[in-house]
Every structure is written in C-alpha cells, then in structure tokens.
Amino acid sequence: MRDCKKRTNFAGCFIVDNYTIMFGKLFKSKKEQVKLFYNTDVHCHILPGVDHGSQSIEQSLEMLKAEAEMGISRVILTSHVTAVTFENTRETLMDAFMKLKDAVTDAGIDMELYLSAEYRMDEYFDKEYAADHLIPMPGNHILLENSFQQELMNLDELLFDMQVKGYKTILAHPERYNYYSRRRKRYEQLHNAGARFQVNILSFTGYFGEEARDSALWFAENGMIDYLGSDMHNVKQAHIIMDYINSKEWRKLSRDLEQTVKNDMIL
Ligand SMILES: [Fe+2]
Ligand SMILES: [Fe+2]
Fold first, then answer.
1. Are residues 171 and 68 in the same domain?
2. Contact 68/112 with Cβ under 8 angstroms?
3. In the chain, is it the N or the C terminus that has fewer CB atoms within a 10 Å radius of its CB?
4. Residues 21 and 100 in one domain
C-alpha cells in the first residue's frame, strides 16, 4: 500500500488516525465492460504513423487493449489510402504492420492482426486498382469510402467491375454520407447491386451528428447492416464506444443487429 506523505495533495488515499485507506477499497469497483457480440473489428485506424489515426506504437497498444476489453480478438487494420493526404502504398502499410505486430507480441497482447486499408474512391485509388496494388481483407473483401461531398460519378460501374474481378465490396460508413439521407432508396439500389454496408458504432452515439445517427438507426431497422466497425482513430473514441455498448440502447439494438452482422464470417 502506498504511503500518504501529505494529507492534502495525494489523490487516491487519505489518513485516518494514522491508518492509510485506499479510496478503491471504499468505493464499489468499476462496472464490468459489456462485450460486443462479435470478435472481429473490420474497420479501424490503429496502425501507427500512416494516417490521422494512431500516431505511435504506444497509442496503438492502448487502442488494442480497449478492443480486447470489448471482446475483440481479431482486428483488421484499415488505414486511410487517399489521394494527396494519405498516399499509402503496400510498402508503407506493411512496414508499420510489421512494427506493430512485433510490439503486440512484446507487450503480450493476445490479438490477431490483419492488414488491409480503407480506400477512398478517388484518382489515387484508380491508379492503385489499375496496378493491382490493393491489399484486400481476408476473403478478398475491400473497404471502400465515398467522398463526403458527393457520390462517385461512376460508382455503379466501379462496383460492378470490382465484383467481376472477384472483390467483395464493402461501403464504409454509408450512414455518414449525408447526401443519401433524403434518398435512401439509393442505399437499397447499392445493396441490391452487391455492395455490403459497414456501419460505425460511433454513429449510433451521435458522435458524427444527428443525421448520421438517424441514418445508422435506419440501417439497423431495415436489416441492412452487414458489418459493424469501430473506425477508431484514437483512445478517446474507443472509450466513447465502450461507454455506448454499456448502454440499454445498445443492448436492445444489438439483439436485432446480431441477425444481420457478419463480422466474424469475414475471416
Ligand atoms: Fe472513412
Ligand atoms: Fe475509417
């Protein structure tokens, strides 16, 4: 037990008649973290130093510990690949991946890691796709991101072309593209055309605004969520997700989501 040298400036214990009492012994221990109903996170920015997600190995390890607390044991690392801002290549991603894998082993964290990416459909993607440089998830799944301003002009053609080539296309966080919220029929068209939908848990929390939350709930009500993702960029977001999955709303929602979500089938 730590000694309290001063009565006034030591947080964590206090002195009563020369006996030191730890606060932790006095108060109820923290409520146990609720686990997710699946074990595979298919979307996150935990790979260090390659986008605006984790900026260091230490941050990555903290994020992976948070994933483990939520019951995740397999993480697919999906760093951004975007024109100009994050022009990652197979080499930049693989280099960071090997470093993180070593650090995870050294830290004794029990977590399976897989390398893939979140591809923004832009001119850089066109080049990488044409050169056959994409890094798919297991099962040839590819996580694709639309622009937040407008839908890609030739989205249908691209999805068709990719599917013909054997890719299984997953649209990242469709609930966050607000230009779809007044024409949700479009979601149905895309789903019927073979695109699968990955919704962010953070969207349910209102983190991306009311419109994204409403859309996320619409996806859930309509049984159109194929995958859930943390899309976590930092430890703070991990904690928001952890708090949310402890909520009554999530408990109710997850009963329906279990019917359609296939995260663990991706591997
Ligand atoms: Fe994204
Ligand atoms: Fe992302």
1. yes
2. no
3. N
4. no
